[in-house]
Amino acid sequence: MNRRTKLRLILSLLLLGFVMSPAFADEQTIELAPSVPYVDIPIEATAPTTITIQTTNGTPQTNPSFVDSWIELWQGATKLRADDDGLHSGTNVLASIITAPIETGFYFIRATSFAWMASNYTQTPTGTYLLTWSGVTTIPTPTPTPTETITPSLEPTPTIEPTLIPEVTPEPTQIPSEDNSNSEPILPEVLPSLEPIPELTEIVIPEPEIIEQIIEQETIETPIVEPELSVEELEEQIQEQINIEYIAENTIELELPTALAEIPGIAEVFAATEAILNVGSDMTQEQREESQSVVVGAIVVTQIASMASAASVQGSSKRNATKRIKNK
Fold it and tell me: Domain 3-138 falls in which CATH fold?
């Protein structure tokens, strides 16, 4: 193989690789209007690659139809990337760019405007900008092939006079056929079969609701400390408890026998007896001892008075007896 043949082979391989390489950049002018708020471009990654999508919209002075571009990368119903002003510069104001590694599969690029996205799909500006992408293969959109319809021209049927008996059958008009013997055969155009691209709806991710957490300050409760009792107060409480138990122990309760319950007035008799027996039962031990001393003193005084009275009576009797003896 000579040098010229090798050079031709190398150039052919380079040309073939350039044509078949998915890194070949494509571009499309995006024209937006109220009836066209966004444009979707289907693409395919035949192998893992890095896709680059960018816009060129110039400035309002250089582009009378200036639009603030907004681009997105989708796979199915999932939005992978989005950008608004990533390629902004002094000569390319508010331009967008997306650079991302992707796997093998089908994707599509959505080109729209910042006004459409920021207004929640209510405002649609009218204008254009240039969209460029590389790293993938663009799937061509099939265009319908127009079909030519040939309408045969029929000659008017001649009017038959009623005097003619035989029926006249008009001969059909022959349509001259074109001689295509010398022309090349027309082969039907084979269009690539494309999978239908489902209509995608914008997925709105709700922002997490921020719940303000109010932290209450801990309050330290001061325990209530009861004052300590003195010895005298403690003795008084103990003595009071002893008195309550003493009174309960010395209270007499009489039970009315069942056999006597039918006697009229027996219940009142038992109640009066119980009241008499419990006289002084509500006294404490000290009160009872004091009462006993008073009662004993009264009894002693009564006994002394009785003894004195008896002694005076007895002395008077002796004196009277003595007087009677003397008088005799």
Answer: Jelly Rolls (2.60.120)
